[in-house]
Amino acid sequence: MDATADELAGVVDLFGGLTRAELERALAEAAYRADGQSVDDGALEAAIDEALESFTLVRYDPADEDVASMADGEALLVAGPTAFPTVPADAEDVPHILDVERRRLDRDLLGERTRERVREAADEAIEAEESERIRVLIDVSYDVESWAPVDLTDERTRLEDALDE
C-alpha cells in the first residue's frame, strides 16, 4: 500500500493526531484489510517526510499533560494546512481496530508551532536561494493563516523580498 500525503492526513485526522508509530500501525492495518497488502517501510518513511515538508502533515509536540500522556510524550503528526484529508478505502475501520483515543489539540499552540516551522523553512530556502521553494512557502503562509489563528505577514514579506533580490 502506497499512501499519498492526503491519505496520510486523512488517517491522522481520524484520530486528531497520531505518533509516527501509530500512523505506521494504522496504515499496516489498512493495507492488510486491502487484500492482505503490506506497507513498504521505506516508502512510508519517505511519504511521511514529504508530507511534513509540504505541510500536508505537521508535528505537534504536546505541551498539554493530557495529550502528552496519550501519546507517551511523543510528537503527534496532524493534518496540516495544505492537506485535503482523504481516508483510504480500507482505513475507515482503523479507529475501531487501534486502541487510540481521539486527541483534542490546542489549535493556538498548533498554529504557533506551525508558524515556527514555516519560519525555519523560510530561513533554509532563503539561505539556499531556492526560489521555487520560496514561492511554495509564500503560498503555504496563506494556507497556514486560514488554518490556524496566526499571522505570517512578516515571514511572507521576507520571502517576497528574497525573490526580488
Short descriptors:
Arc Repressor Mutant, subunit A; 2 domains; two-stranded antiparallel sheet; 2 strands; elongated
Write a structural description:
This protein has 165 residues and is mostly helical. The chain has 2 domains: 93 residues, Orthogonal Bundle (Arc Repressor Mutant, subunit A), CATH 1.10.10; 58 residues, no CATH class. 60% of the residues lie in helices and 5% in strands. The chain has 8 helices and 2 strands; from the N terminus they run αααβαβαααα. It has a two-stranded antiparallel sheet. α1 packs across α3 and α6 runs antiparallel to α7. The longest helix has 22 residues. The model has no long low-confidence stretch (mean pLDDT 88).
Q: Helix- and strand-based class?
A: mainly alpha
Largest sheet: 2 strands, antiparallel
Order of secondary-structure elements: HHHEHEHHHH
Distance between the termini: 44 Å
> Strand arrangement, largest sheet?
1-2
| Poorly predicted tracts of residues | none
What helical percentage do the residues reach?
Answer: 55-70%
Quick check: average pLDDT? 88
Any idea of the CATH class of the largest domain?
A: Mainly Alpha
Q: What is the architecture of the largest domain at the second tier of CATH?
A: Orthogonal Bundle
Which of globular, elongated, flat, extended, rod-shaped describes the shape? elongated
Radius of gyration: 17 Å
InterPro entries: DUF7109
Pfam family, one: DUF7109
